[in-house]
Amino acid sequence: MSDTIEVDGKQFAVDEEGYLANLNDWVPGVANVMAAQDNLELTDEHWDIINFLREYYEEYQIAPAVRVLTKAVGKKLGKDKGNSKYLYSLFPYGPAKQACRFAGLPKPTGCV
Amino acid sequence: MSEVVKKFMYLNRKAPYGTIYAWEALEVVLIGAAFDQDVSVMFLDDGVFQLTKGQDTKAIGMKNFSPTFRTLGDYEVKKIYVDRASLEARGLTEDDLVEIAWEDFETEEEIENIVEVVDSARVSELMNESDAIFSF
Amino acid sequence: MSILHTINKSPFERNALESCLKFASDGSAVLLFEDGVYAALQGTAVEPHVSGALGRLKVYVLGPDLQARGFSAERIIEGISVVDYAGFVDLAAENGKVQAWL
Predict the structure, then answer these.
(1) What value of ipTM does the predicted structure carry?
(2) pTM score of the predicted model
């Protein structure tokens, strides 16, 4: 993994696992570029989760562990979305890890 | 995963920001929450300062982890205790502390605030009931 | 030469405040910062010691550290002045020496 990613001609620093180095640098294009690297095309359903994670971080200053994310998504976006099958279908590398990376958040606390 | 559920207590006795203990303890609690044990978090001595409302660290350039305590309910950490004598010695009351809500997503049962202020005898009792105490 | 005494440890955990108040000579300045700011709060077990020293010492508390810990200026003992980082620097400059009670 390179130490920067390029979004709209601008360089963004990332850590060795590909997470954005500076949370405040994030622009939506970051998610699109990271998704393309993972061979994913982002849909509205992906964006619901990415935006949800950003709001969660804004409020609690933490990226939630996957089972917390699952519960919280169920509460906010409906029970049909608050299950790991649905979330893994959107984010095959793991909803917390991959979606947090797209959202510009640090790796979730409680993830190894 | 083991079938045996152990009672773990995380004991917090340090003020936030002056040292790294408070933040480290909170991270350990959140990581440990994945293991489905019977977890309680006790705030004693200067540890009670971790829960004060209205923390704003912008001017000191440190991460404000006060809002993160409010996720403890989401992480199914439901037993949060504060020693009353420690509050009183520091000129604090329950009203100075953040509230932490808990909700069962299945039944929608809700507890508005799981932070419980207890007397010293109860603190001792809770320590005695624990299988292991992690001290920070 | 005048001394600025600084205390950055909680008065409930260490005896830095107690020793400082014992040894600081009349007219000295005392600045409470980091976890030392808890000594400036009203209604604590150490308030009598701090209040008792206010007549002979000038006591200051660092605003940003107070704010970080969730306390506004209304919660501090009357007679203690809140200063910002620039005020801290001024105090260090005004006093010939700085003694840090670690």
Answers:
(1) 0.92
(2) 0.91
